[in-house]
Design brief:
With 107 residues, the protein is α/β, with parallel strands linked by helices. It is built from five helices and three strands, in the order H-E-H-E-H-E-H-H. The chain has a three-stranded parallel β-sheet with strand order 1-2-3.
Length: 107
């Protein structure tokens, strides 16, 4: 998540229309991908919720494996970013709120 947030912040308009690749893309990352206005994304692991976001916003995508949810490191619950993103509706809100969450987590 940190890398995607940094890319959006550092590249600004340069990221528009780009293609990106990430190991894991869930709903939170999907919302950020939409916000950044990239044209397509590749994920080694893509969650069903992330897939819904990309399809709905007509972002091209490819993936290696689909999973129901992105889980936390101990595999006991949803990833904190995924859980947090469930209440977020817009990509712009996702960027602002996920950035704050990352900062509060010290990541």
């Amino acid at each position: 998540m940190r890398g995607l947030l940094q890319a959006i912040e550092n590249l600004k308009d340069e990221i528009y229309g780009a293609s990106i690749a990430d190991t894991v893309v869930g709903r939170a990352a999907g919302l950020l991908i939409v916000y950044s206005r990239v044209k397509e994304a590749y994920a080694a692991i893509l969650s069903e919720e992330g897939l819904k976001v990309l399809r709905e916003k007509k972002i091209g995508y490819e993936f290696g494996r689909i999973v129901p949810w992105i889980l936390n490191e101990s595999q006991t619950d949803l990833c904190p970013f995924e859980k947090f993103s469930l209440s977020i509706k817009s990509p712009a809100e996702a960027y602002q709120e996920l950035k704050k969450l990352q900062e509060s987590m010290g990541r």
